[in-house]
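User: Hi! I'm a student and our assignment asks us to look at how structure tokens line up with a sequence. Could you show me two examples?

Assistant: Happy to help. In each example below, the sequence comes first and the structure tokens follow. Example one:
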Amino acid sequence: MLTRAQFNNLDYRRHQIDTLKVFNDNVVEIVELEEYCVHFESAARSFILTVLLTVNFPNERPKLILSPRVRHCWVNPLTGEVEKAPGLLNYSPHSDLGRVVQVVIREFERFPPSVIKNSATVSSSNLILPLSINISHSLDNINTVGAANNTVSAMQQQNINNYLSQQASPHESSLTTSNLPNLSTLSLDELKKLDNDPEFFNDFIQEMSVVQQLNEELDSMINQLEYIARENLNKEGHLVELKRKLSDDVNTLKNLGEKCDQLNKKYLKKSDDYAPQHIRELLQIAVSTADTECERHVEQFLNGKIDVQTFLQNYTHSKKLSSERKAKEERLGQQLHALERAGF
């Protein structure tokens, strides 16, 4: 185990390891503060992602090694190390280790990579073996290496045993309840054929009750999708009719909107024409016009263009109009002043 002096920040290193356990399931501690394994499955195949923390971590990015080796743009096919994951390429001391590992596992779960042949950490037959066997096999390898290098302590071995007792047993018991066939009943030749003959292996998988159940569920889902598709086709005519009605309503609304705009313009014009202030201005113009007519009649009489009777008749009429309009204008002005003083 590394000493405290070998770490730049031991507390922050522990915090990063805590994020690894928070954001990911099935995390097994191999060497405290140095090496961890994360088990996951993709396309019914078991994988183990080994997380190696160097002496300079978290200032230096961790090493992620995938077993078995796969063909993927993020993975070095020779070493199995994940090198080109975005979280690793953009890694900084402030990155979360748990999120970096989570993104890598999600990528392999969403897009299952192809396994390189002769990459024998998890063989093709492990598709039908319990999870505990795969984990035990991997942990046996880890224990062997650890014993040779004296790096795995008794406490670390106890942590592995506790993980097996908590995780492997329930999964194993659920898989052996008639979901998976008993391989012990097969002969050696059948087992070899199962391992070497892909067609025999596929037939063997298809005869499994769990696969048959999945096929039945798939058929049921296909039938349900076909029924929904037929229902959608039957409602297509009704939807087209509703769309046509909606288009007509939109056109009607557009025409009513245009008509409303025209009427609103007329209303505003009428409102301006009949506004009290505008009427007062028109009365003032009319008074001025009547006074001008009176002056014109006087000038015509003085120039001898009209006789006395015509002058009196025209002058009296124009003066009467001027007086009436002036009275109306003055009365309207008083009313407007009164409204203005009242705050209207």
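Example two works the same way, sequence first and then tokens:
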Amino acid sequence: MEFLWTIFEYLVVVGLVLVLGLGAAIVFEAFSRRFNHAHAEGHPIFEDPNSLKQVPCPYIFDPAEKYISLIIPAFNEEHRLPGALDETLNYLQQRAVKEKSFSYEVVIVDDGSADGTKRVAFDFVRKYTVENVRVILLGRNHGKGEAIRKGMLHSRGELLLMLDADGATKVDDLEKLEKEILEVAKRELGDSPDHDSSLRISDIPIAAFGSRAHLEERALAAGGNILITGSSFIPQIKPVHFMFQRKWYRNFLMKGFHLVVLLAAGPGIRDTQCGFKMFTRAAARKLFTNIRLKRWCFDVELVYLCKWFRIPIIEISVNWSEIPGSKVNPLSIPNMLWEIGLMSVGYRTGMWKIST
């Protein structure tokens, strides 16, 4: 009995040491990120691969030059990126033909890929010109949040859309988000008795989040089974219709993460993690000059900052398919919890100051 008690005391001491060590590590890391230049701040250089000349690099505080910018973070995506870009650029070109005032750019942010992602990205720059497609190279892997932040800060659009490199959400769903933002912007301008007639949509801070909450409800009701209908981006593969069992850890993340988000950022958004989000230029300016999280949970920080700035958030259901090759795995769980801990400590202690 005395031996068991000794083991118990030993385990308690070890547990306390681990908890205190983890707490100290979180506080130290949060403190080290109190200034935003903990991020990768090297000024990106846009190069025209056809002329080999450098192109002036825009910044989020510059006036908008395009109607919409699409920011695509890419890490080791040489196989999935080409199909997603083909679909995206086909849609954008067709819309530009129909709407003479419609202008666009696609900004691909290579997050330190070790495969042929860089080559694929520059192939599209050569094909569509540097005026419409641009590439930012981060050099080493910083995380999805940092890649999107970098792309947002150096885009030219009145509206800025972040979307994943796998094409899981159909690009034409951006019209759903765009429509809601336009409606909110019109109400904001119309409700102001002394509004400036020169104001544009880009001047009104608004965020629109694509949501898969309706699909998650179906998945949970079906015991984790999801019906996928769609087409593959791999050549010679016909459209598919199949049922598959969603991996256990994705269901675990889906259920547990909502609770963690509720505690960290508060209620209001059912799906924070969908990679399909649109911001006006004014909203992106406020949010992405303040964001500190670099990886999985930067979306949660976006929700927190939107609430702090009182930026309206619209959540809109989008069409979504689970594409093979996801980088979410069981190791994502501790990474997510780590970032949530950093955010909670950083903001609640006042270490992370928000620039207005």
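Here is something you could point out in your write-up. The CA atoms of residues 144 and 295 lie 5 Å apart.
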